[in-house]
Amino acid sequence: MPYDVQAKDVSILGQHIKNLKIKMVLLNNNTQPIDILQGDLISGDITISATDDIRRSATFTFALKNKSYIASETGKIWFDKYIDLYLGILNTKTQQIQYYPIGLYVFNDNTYTYNSTTNQIEVKCKDFMYKVESTPLYGTDTYKILAGTIIRDAIIGAVTQLVGCKKYLVGNVGSEFGTNINNVSGQNYNSVPYDLSFSTSDSVYSIISKLRDLYSGWETFYDEDMFICQQIPTGTNESIILDWETVEKKQLLISESRTNSFDKVKNITQVFGKQITADRYTATCMNTGSQYNATFTDVTALESGKIYAVKLNVANLVNPTLKINSLTVYPIVDTSGVTIPVGKVNGYSAFKFYNNQFMYLGQYRVCALTVHVSVMPDSTKQQYYKDKFNTDNIAYVVNPDSPYTIEKIGERIDVKSGSDYDQIYSQDLASQRGKFENWKTTRMEDSITLELQLVPWLSVNKLISYKSKITNEVNTYIVKNISIKLLDGVMTVDLIRYYPLHPDIS
CA angle, corner 128, sides to 123 and 130, nearest 5? Predict the structure, then answer.
């Protein structure tokens, strides 16, 4: 869990005399301490990445004192043993060593080298997510998760039953949509919307990632021996754990470099989701005010759950309804049951009849557009985007403070399709995903890399403030990657500029 930074932890930063200690506690498969790995550490590297599921990895090289370090069933390095790593710093005022947890690791690879001058071993380790990624499905041809299963329960079941995880902290994936029923699937948003099947060619990670990615903005990783599934931190409501005054006062900065990747900056995001397959089609439709009157061949009754595709003759007016043949008129709503706004529906559109309503699913293919603008476009400009991208499902993110809006740098288009995007089955989910992807490509490309004196308790997805030596500006940043040279007392930290999450994508 996050380290609770105290005044004593800040006081040791920037000490002119660095006396570093490495403590490698050997654990059994019940994570109980059984030994301390002792040897002359020759080198050691730790990497922590907020964007990788295997968040922490480590490589150690040390001179051997005895052959018990050679990998074997009776040795210290084996399949059923783990390393709990601590980094210690001598407090020159108290003459006491302050130890900091750097992670809990499984052995991944090791190389033993001997010659007349050296007798050393290199050990590579990864955090516990490696167990999830490397555990295959076995004992059955298929592993099924049925529609309606709570997503959180399915994730917990996979990590506890298939991997043997005993500690977990799993959020309620989909709860960000509240208690509304998703009328496309007929399920609550925090439920699996359709049956999922996995085979022996998949790993446990395939299950976890599929469930996690049903909605955008969620991450999975291990913190020590605890599996965590949570919404990706955006910095909102987070406190700054390292401020720029401390960086300057303690003389922590060694170097600064800035990177602005123009190629990655995109301010228009188009998301293509699932191809819609309708049960019935018609190109015959006229309107009487807000009511569409569609003519279908051989439709004498409406069937719940069936999808009816209609080539609409005009864009919808206020409170639209649909009448098929001489049957009852029903309202047109979105997949959350909310009345469709004016001008939202047009062209060849698909509707699912459910609960005495026609749920608008989109056109032939689920599609959404997100446009990052300085001001809300007028009706002429909005029509331009509808025509250019052939969709009415458009969200405008208005951010006059952003340097990346279309008014300032022109149109930079990012198209998302295939793979996981093909599983997006409704217009509102496509729009939500588009807003999230757009936020990432317009808000997170202003990055800097700092080389710092060691700050052992710093971690990823945390906020720091920093006064640039290049621009002389003070800004808030999110830590995304950390690389530590254990013996040098130096760390490299990759930061991205913090922007508050725009209300439109929450």
Answer: 75
Number of C-beta neighbours around residue 319 at 10 A: 14
Q: What is the reported pLDDT for 458?
A: 92
Q: How does pLDDT run across 297-308, given as a tens digit for each residue?
A: 989 999 998 999
Rounded to an integer, what distance in angstroms lies between the CA atom of residue 74 and that of residue 71? Answer: 8
> Which of 114-143 are b and which e, b meaning 16 or more Cβ less than 10 Å from the residue's Cβ?
eeeeeebbebbbbbbbbbbeebebeeeeeb
- What is the reported pTM? 0.75
Phi, psi of 163 (to 5 degrees): -115, -20
Residue of 107, 170, 153 whose CA lies nearest to 134: 107
Q: Which residue, 184, 261, 220, 245, is CA-closest to 447? A: 261
pLDDT at 271: 94
Could you say which residues of the chain have pLDDT below 70? 1-2, 37-40, 64-80, 109-118, 139-141, 183-184, 260, 443-445, 500-506
User: Do the beta carbons of residue 121 and residue 113 sit within 8 Å?
Assistant: yes
Q: How far apart are CA 190 and CA 152, in angstroms?
A: 8
Among the CATH numbers 2.40.160, 2.60.120, 2.60.40, 2.40.30, which is that of 240-260+444-505? 2.40.30
The model's pLDDT over 316-338, given as tens digits with 9 standing for 90+, comes to 999 999 999 999 999 999 877 88
Give the three-class secondary structure for 329: coil
Domain ranges of the chain: 7-126, 133-223, 240-260+444-505, 268-272+366-443, 277-363
Pairing of strands 187-188, 181-182: antiparallel
| Closest by CA position to 310, among listed 321, 295, 297, 298 | 295
Helix, strand or coil for residue 132?
helix
pLDDT at residue number 499: 72
Strands 20-27 and 33-37: antiparallel
Is-contact 351 308, C-beta < 8 A?
yes
